[in-house]
Every structure is written in structure tokens, then in C-alpha cells.
Design a protein that fits this description.
Layout (H helix, E strand, L loop, with lengths): L2 H21 L7 H26 L5 E5 L2 E4 H17 L7 E5 L4 H13 L2 E4 L6 H11 L3 E5 L3 H4 L7 E6 L10 H5 L16 E4 L9 E4 L8 H4 L9 E4 L6 H12 L3 E4 L5 H11 L3 E4 L1 H8 L3 H4 L9 E5 L5 H11 L3 E7 L3 E6 L1 H6 L12 E5 L13 E6 L15 E2 L2 E10 L5 E6 L4 E3 L2 E3 L1 H9 L4 E11 L3 E10 L7 H11 L8 E4 L13 H6 L3
Parallel strand pairs: 1-10, 3-4, 3-5, 4-7, 5-6, 9-10, 9-11, 11-12, 12-13, 23-24
Antiparallel strand pairs: 1-2, 7-8, 13-14, 15-16, 16-18, 17-18, 18-19, 20-21, 22-23
Length: 540
């Protein structure tokens, strides 16, 4: 390790400790509490460790509120211990690979905790997977045991005969799949011995360009939690409404933060914008975790409807998963005040930058700045740093939470310890990062490079546009031409020529779409990612 790397490591560790102490994850001057937390995380991992440590110190707070009611931290700890023993009795051993396909509820959280305590590897499946996709991913990841909500029984039926199955949420009976609830009362709830290695987990990529890849996460330093806490004021005892799916990187990271801080997590199995507002009011939620499309659907209700609910308890809206347009930032501030925090990262690199409300006021649409222990560089095609404001290049990130390669053996490009995000971006004069778009989304039309995001952001600023996407389609003259897909408001004129004229008045001529298609909604996956290939292949 070079002297520079050593200095950076020491600086990052000290900075992380200060952030974690400020947030309440570590207790100073109660060094004994701090040590017990760090030891528990080392023994049981980042999900189960903090719960175990807090309960051992007497925490009596509510951990989960879902459609079935409330579960305390003490009960969550005991139930997960019983589930470990139930699985052990069924022959599940450390190193076994479990898959889980579940919506947001206690069953998913219990599965995550018990898997970590048992020392198994947990593959977090997207609830939108088709049966064949699920079977292919389960085969690739060597899934031997599968936990699922009964509504996904048809998908689970595609797994090989002999796969051990359990229900995480039961709306109907599924032969051969006992509900984990039915097992909990048969086994001891006292603490279980720590596994030789804490169970790891595998996140799936969005799969917008094919079968989702597996991005594994093994043992990580407990100090990496500071990346989420440095620029987002998550604190002990808050009430977090988890609207984002907890199988997604956004949801799973914030679930881990909430458990580490002894927060109460409010969960609903399905997202509904009105119900989300009701839960904020009724549960006095302080934190709302969303992906950007969820936030857009809430805002599309209109200020009049939003103000029917008391959302004054809300201090943080945490959004991640895709870029936020300047218009969405502005509308959020008008509806809820200065509460929006935008995290930019990826399944592979985890955290890159965070934009605070102040950042978003000063530079609407920015991805923000790197938090403690994260490093971001923009590199040109030769791998040299790009530091000049406004000059685009490829975004690379170094983070203690970065993965070590996909489960199929492939990897992202790496340069000097930095991992490629697959995005192109630039710095502004104040050092804020802006994401211009995906590297593979770039459209070359008539010899000019166009990133769709710039045109999309312009279109959604219109009062008569709810959503927009721009793709490149083959063109015999220009190689590719831009085609815009627009979701209009009910009262919009739906005039393609007027849309084109608007873009021409605000952007360069080569960025004007040749075609404008109006749709009722854009195709997106369960985490809100736009399915551009569906639009490219759409027959017009």
C-alpha cells in the first residue's frame, strides 16, 4: 500500500467514525456500546448485527410496521433466531444459496436476518421476473432453497423439482411450501451462535438490456455505512416509510441503515401514491425512500391533492435508482419543502455521490458530491482525468461497497482502482457532478452525439408533459434519428410539430426529434427503470 493510499485510508476511517457517531450508529463516550455493535456486525453482518446488538442492550422500539401490524426489535430478533433453527432442522447449512422473491413486509426482513445469521448466501430476486427468467437466474446462482410470497407461486413453479420452498407471505396455500410464520412457534428464540462467515447477498442488476446479472456483496467494513449518513441526516429513532422495493439496491441499503439506527420502518406491499401520502400522515413518517418514478407519480397528483394530507413530519425524501430531472427537483421542493436527497450510484459501485437539498437548489438536477470514503473521477477515452467544467467523460467510482465482479465471472471496466458506472457525466464550475446519460444510450445522428437525457429533461419541464423518453432509431440518411415518446396530460394538445418547435427553440437543431409519439405511459420495470429497447422495437 502506497503512502498516499495509507493516508487516504486513515482519513476515510476517521471521517467515517465521526459521521457514524453524529448519526447515532456508534455511541460515544459509551465505548462498550460501540465495541458491541462493531463485534455484532462482524459476527452477523450489516443486517442482523445491529439488531442483535441493540436488543442485547435493551432496545424496545418498534422495528417494522406492515399490513399485519407492528413488530418490535426484540420480537424481530427472536423470530429470526427461531427461523434459523427451523431451517437448520430442515437441513439448510452455511454456504447454502437461498433465493427470495418478496414484496415489502416482515417476511422479507426476517428472511434477510435469518439468512445472515445462518451464514447462507441470499439472492434478492426482482418481483417482476418472469418464470423463465427466474429459473435461469436460480440455475446460474445455484439456488437450492427459495422463499417467496404466494402470489409468485407461478414463477416459483418454474424452479427445478427438489428445490426447497417456503412462503414469506401467504395469501393462499401453496403445496409443499410451508409459511415461515408457521415455523416460528416451534423453535427456540434465544440467540443463535454466529456462523463462521456471515451470510452474503446478491443484488440483481436492472436487466434493461437482458437477463439481470448478479452483483454479490460479501463482508464489508461497518464503516461503509457512513457513505449513506454523511450527506443524508438519517438519525436514530426516526420513522422511515420504505416505498422503494427492498430487493433493490436503494431499498436494501436504506433498510440496513434503518436497522442500524433503531428506526421504525413502515412497509406496504404495493406502491400507491395516495396511500403513500396517507401513510406519511398517519404514521408521522420522517423519511420517505423512493425511486424517482414513485416520486413523480406522487407529484403528478398535483399540489391540491398533496396538501390535503399533513406531511409536515417528513424531513427527508431519499431518492435513488435513476437520474432526477431539474423539473422533478423543483416540483418536490414546492410540494414538500427542502427535503429531497438524491443518491447517485449503481448496483455495482453502490454509492458515488449524494445531492443535498442545498445542492439541488444551487444546481437543479445535479448528482451532488462524493460522501466520505467515496472517490469519483471523470475520465476521457484514454483514461485521463477530465477536470474542466462542462466537459463530458466516463464516470468512474471507488467505494468500499463496490462489488468484486459479477457472479458469472464478468466484470465492469476498472482503471486505477476505480470502477466504471457505465454513465457519462461532467463537473460544473462549482464541483457538482451531472450525469449526462448512459454511455450506451448515446445516439449518433448525422455525425453528432446526442444524449437522450438532455432532451427528456427539457420535455418534462412542460406543464402538459407527465413523462418523456427519447431513443435512436435507424435512419438511412442520418444513421439514426431521434424519436420522442411523450406521456401528455389529459388536456394536452398532443401536437407533434409544436413539441418539435419547442425543442428547436431550446436546443441545437440536431437534438430535435424527427418523430413524436404520444403514449399513455412509458414501459418501465418494477424499479422504475425505463425499458428503452421496448421503445426502440415498438412498431409505429
Amino acid at each position: 500500500m502506497s503512502a498516499q493510499d495509507l493516508v487516504r485510508k486513515v482519513t476515510d476511517t476517521v471521517g467515517s467514525l465521526m459521521v457514524m457517531q453524529r448519526a447515532g450508529v456508534l455511541s460515544f463516550p459509551r465505548v462498550d456500546h460501540t465495541v458491541s455493535t462493531l463485534l455484532a456486525v462482524r459476527k452477523y453482518g450489516p443486517f442482523a448485527g445491529p439488531v442483535h446488538a441493540d436488543v442485547a442492550r435493551g432496545l424496545e422500539a418498534i422495528a417494522i410496521i406492515d399490513e399485519r401490524g407492528a413488530v418490535s426489535y426484540r420480537n424481530l430478533e427472536g423470530m429470526s433466531n427461531a427461523l434459523v433453527r427451523a431451517w437448520q432442522a430442515d437441513g439448510i447449512r452455511p454456504g447454502t444459496v437461498l433465493g427470495v422473491m418478496a414484496r415489502n413486509h416482515r417476511g422479507l426482513v426476517l428472511t434477510m436476518l435469518a439468512s445472515a445469521k445462518l451464514g447462507t448466501k441470499l439472492v434478492l430476486m426482482n418481483t417482476g421476473l418472469a418464470p423463465r427468467q427466474l429459473a435461469d437466474i436460480a440455475a446460474r446462482e445455484n439456488v437450492e432453497t427459495f422463499v417467496f410470497d404466494s402470489e409468485f407461486a407461478a414463477a416459483a413453479a418454474a424452479l427445478p423439482e427438489g428445490t426447497r420452498t417456503y412462503l414469506s407471505w401467504q395469501d393462499e396455500l401453496v403445496p409443499g411450501a410451508p409459511a415461515i410464520d408457521s415455523l416460528l412457534y416451534k423453535f427456540d428464540r434465544s440467540p443463535v451462535p454466529a456462523p463462521s462467515e456471515p451470510g452474503g447477498f446478491v443484488l440483481l442488476t436492472s436487466g434493461t438490456t437482458g437477463t439481470p446479472k448478479g452483483a454479490p456483496r460479501g463482508r464489508t467494513s461497518p464503516f461503509t455505512s457512513a457513505q449513506f449518513l454523511d450527506r443524508v441526516p438519517l438519525r436514530r429513532g426516526q420513522r422511515m416509510l420504505m416505498a422503494a422495493p427492498a430487493f433493490h439496491g436503494t431499498g436494501v441499503s436504506q433498510m440496513a441503515m434503518a436497522l442500524a439506527l433503531g428506526q421504525t420502518v413502515i412497509m406496504a406491499r404495493r406502491f400507491d401514491p395516495l396511500e403513500t401520502l396517507r401513510l406519511i400522515e398517519g404514521e408521522r413518517a420522517n423519511v420517505l425512500v423512493v425511486v424517482p418514478t414513485m416520486l413523480q407519480r406522487i407529484l403528478d397528483l398535483g399540489i391540491g391533492k398533496i396538501t390535503e394530507f399533513d406531511t409536515s413530519s417528513l424531513k427527508i425524501i431519499f431518492a435513488a435508482g435513476s437520474a432526477l430531472s431539474p423539473d422533478l427537483c423543483r416540483r418536490t421542493r414546492e410540494a414538500f419543502g427542502d427535503v429531497l436527497h438524491n443518491l447517485y450510484g449503481s448496483t455495482e459501485c453502490a454509492v458515488a455521490t449524494v445531492a443535498t437539498p442545498e445542492d439541488l437548489r444551487r444546481a437543479p438536477g445535479t448528482a451532488g458530491r462524493p460522501p466520505v470514503s467515496c472517490r469519483v473521477e471523470i475520465l476521457d477515452d484514454a483514461g485521463n482525468p477530465v477536470t474542466e467544467p462542462g466537459v463530458s467523460g466516463r464516470i468512474f467510482v471507488a467505494s468500499g461497497l463496490s462489488f468484486e465482479g459479477y457472479t458469472d465471472g464478468r466484470d465492469k471496466e476498472r482503471i486505477r482502482g476505480l470502477l466504471a458506472t457505465g454513465d457519462v457525466g461532467h463537473w460544473d464550475a462549482d464541483g457538482y457532478l451531472f450525469v449526462d446519460g448512459r454511455d450506451d444510450d448515446m445516439i449518433i445522428s448525422g455525425g453528432e452525439n446526442v444524449y437522450p437525457l438532455e432532451v427528456e429533461n427539457l420535455l418534462v419541464e412542460r406543464d402538459d408533459v407527465l413523462d418523456a423518453a427519447v431513443v435512436g432509431v435507424e435512419d438511412p440518411e442520418f444513421g439514426a434519428r431521434l424519436r420522442a415518446f411523450v406521456v401528455p396530460t389529459p388536456t394536452a394538445a398532443r401536437d407533434p410539430e409544436e413539441i418539435k418547435a419547442y425543442v428547436k427553440a431550446n436546443l441545437a437543431r440536431y437534438k430535435v426529434p424527427r418523430d413524436v409519439i404520444f403514449l399513455e405511459e412509458l414501459p418501465r420495470n418494477t424499479t422504475g427503470k425505463l425499458l428503452r429497447r421496448v421503445l426502440v422495437d415498438m412498431k409505429i
